[in-house]
TrEMBL record:
Pfam families: NosD
Molecular functions per Gene Ontology: lyase activity
Sorted UniProt keywords: Lyase, Signal
Protein's name according to its UniProt entry: Pectate lyase superfamily protein
Source organism superkingdom: Bacteria
SMART domains in the cross-refs: PbH1
InterPro entries: NosD_dom, PbH1, Pectin_lyas_fold, Pectin_lyase_fold/virulence
Periplasmic copper-binding protein NosD beta helix domain residues: 177-322
Residues of the signal peptide: 1-22
UniProt-listed Gene3D superfamilies: Single-stranded right-handed beta-helix, Pectin lyase-like (2.160.20.10)
Amino acid sequence: MTPLFKHAVCLLTILFVATTTATKTTAADSTSTKQVINAAKFDSLQAALDALPKEGGVVLLPPGKFEITEPLRLGVGDVSLRGSGTATHIINKNEAGEPALLIAHPECKNAKTDRKFNLWRVHVTDLRITGNEKSGAGIEARQVNEIYLEGITLSENGGDGVFLNYCYEDPRIVDSLFTYNKKNGVNLAGCHDIVVNANHFEENQDALLCTDGYNLCMNGNNLDDHLGHGVIIENTYGSVLSGNMIEECAGTGIILDRDCYGITLSANVIAHNGAGIDLRDAHGCAVSANTFTILKTNALRIGPDSGRITVTGNNFSNSYIGEKSIKRKVDDAAAGGMLIDNAANISITGNVFSGLTEKAVTLKGERKNIVFASNVLVDVESDLE
């Protein structure tokens, strides 16, 4: 057998195997009951959702304004709900506190207790949802594991923008916009291994609330102009907030409360809020490499129920821009420092405190196992030096 003939035989064998495999795959796919549903062919969006088989599928939403007075209900998993960008606009006219979109098993009424009635793998993308002062959340999900929300705009809802209610396994919220919602932009209750990345939050009551969960990874988000606080984390551990811009909150930029532990707050810019970070009930946490600038008061507060805190490599500053001048006007020159409020077991090292209108560190109560070393103080007084 010549080398050329051997080569031809090998090619034919490869083509036969590939063709057989492709045929088998196609045959297997042809037995699937999953469907691609074009909602434009149905009388209503709900009718399109109801057409999904129990195995799931894809629902394509057309452009247009769709007014609803009761929630759209999605009750099966392995579904991708896809709009046409912000051209798909769902307007919630409900005034009884109901969400625009409810994602839940039909028998899941109480998300905390009805854990056997759950869904897996729901993807919502490329649409806009708005509500009114009396409506509920833009999207509420109950016991939906591996939920994935991306590229959505949720505005002016009477409740939260998104409420993930015990969506335990691996929820992801990315590249979305949450604005002017009467409660939280995002409300995470009882969730685990959470990713919240590259979103915009503006002028909600609070930007994000995370309670009774763990492993929140919140990175690269932009938070601005909130009527209340920025990020509130309660009864949660093992989490990281990094690379976020948190600005112009009327309240506090970040709050840790109710038995938080093992959380890192790092490399955030926390600017021009009512206050910066408030460790109300937090232990074993690190506050590092953040920029605290022109906070009205208490850039960092460590309260009496907190301890074992590391504070290192941060910059606490006013709007100094060199040449003995500041950028902000005199009536907007407030720049807060640290308040240690009857807390103990704290290491404060390698920070810069400059041009503050409060003391670099105000110590309330006795000094109890507090290390203050290798810090730089410029144009500021301090209770610790």
